[in-house]
Amino acid sequence: MSQDINIKITDRDGVTHEIVAPTDMAMNLMEVVRSYELAPEGTIGVCGGMAMCASCQCYVHSETELPEKSDDEEAMLSEAFGVRDNSRLGCQIQMTPDMEGLEVELAPES
């Protein structure tokens, strides 16, 4: 059974968008940002969602419980610019019913 979730994404211009994201399409946060065109073409998901570029880095502002960071995500964030304690790669956050209420801010382009 499909279930859409409500999330908030603040784009790089500081505008907050309330988004309804599908959980039945195996999408990740980076793909949702791209599908809603919340970042200019070619500025997010440059590596195609392989945790190899950090162009989809975001700051998580909600208390949503996220999966543990993979070794690849940790390694990429250790080399990225503007990393904070709440930084995650959007390509590594799958849209599942557990992500209901997720609030993130896109990190500035580096």
Radius of gyration over C-alpha positions, nearest whole angstrom: 13 Å
Order of neighbouring strands in the sheet with most strands: 2-1-5-3-4
Second-tier CATH architecture: Roll
CATH superfamily: Beta-grasp domain
The residue ranges in which pLDDT falls below 50 over 5 or more consecutive positions are: none
Overall outline: globular
Average pLDDT across residues?
95
Any idea of the CATH topology?
Ubiquitin-like (UB roll)
- Structural class of the helices, strands and pairings? alpha+beta
- The count of helical stretches stands at 2
Note the beta-strand portion: 15-25%
Q: What's the order of the H and E elements?
A: EEHEHEE
Q: Helix content range of the residues, please?
A: 10-25%
Taking the sheet with the most strands, its summary is:
5 strands, mixed
Walkthrough of the structure:
It contains two helices and five strands, in the order ββαβαββ. Strands 2-1-5-3-4 form a five-stranded mixed sheet, covered by helices on one side. A hairpin with a 5-residue loop joins strand 1 and strand 2. Helices cover about 15% and strands about 25% of the residues. It has one domain: Beta-grasp domain (Ubiquitin-like (UB roll), Roll). By secondary structure, the chain is an alpha+beta fold.
Give the gist of this structure:
With 110 residues, this protein is of the alpha+beta class. 15% of the residues lie in helices and 23% in strands. It has a five-stranded mixed β-sheet, with helices on one face.
